[in-house]
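Long-time lurker. I teach an intro course on protein structure, and each term I like to show students one example going from raw sequence to a predicted 3D structure in token notation. This year I'd like something fresh instead of my usual example. Would anyone be willing to generate the tokens for the chain below so I can use it in lecture? Attribution to the forum is fine with me.
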Amino acid sequence: MGILSVWLLTAILAYFLIPGLFANTEILYLRIPIFILGLFYADKVMNNSPLTNVEILLLIAIVVLKVAFNRVTMIPVGGRIMATLWSFPIMFAGVWLCKNFLVYNNYLHRFVQWTGSLSLELYIIHVSLREVFNAYNFSMAIGWHYMVMIVITYLIAILLKKTVTNIIKNI
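-- Reply from a regular --
Happy to contribute to a lecture. Here you go:
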């Protein structure tokens, strides 16, 4: 909780003291910490444990800051909403497939577990690669563009995971 509090203070200070830098590093301040926070709370969610008042206040603060900081981000709110609406049907289809076939299909089960072991790498690579694709006029609304990006994301994530694992083993 201490690390998250320091992160929250850093985000607020960066926003008010260096807004231009904050706008260019918004993902660092607002997305990756949410991923880490999700990992932190995963055990509580899985075990239906109640959140403490401090944990609830931290979550509320994050939501309030995200709404407040949204005006300085590089991507317009409308674009984010459209991207979210486009992604929801895919997400629901994926959840439905996992729920109905994951239990019966050992290959799919192993793929989902393997993907989970790469989740941070996939996220970091996906967000970065999406910016590169957008810069070269690839539209994420075109199915084959998106699929190419997903395949490249997996390939780079695998390489990143292996590289980091090797570095850690050698430390």
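Some talking points for your students: The chain has nine helices and no strands. Residues 2-72 form one domain.
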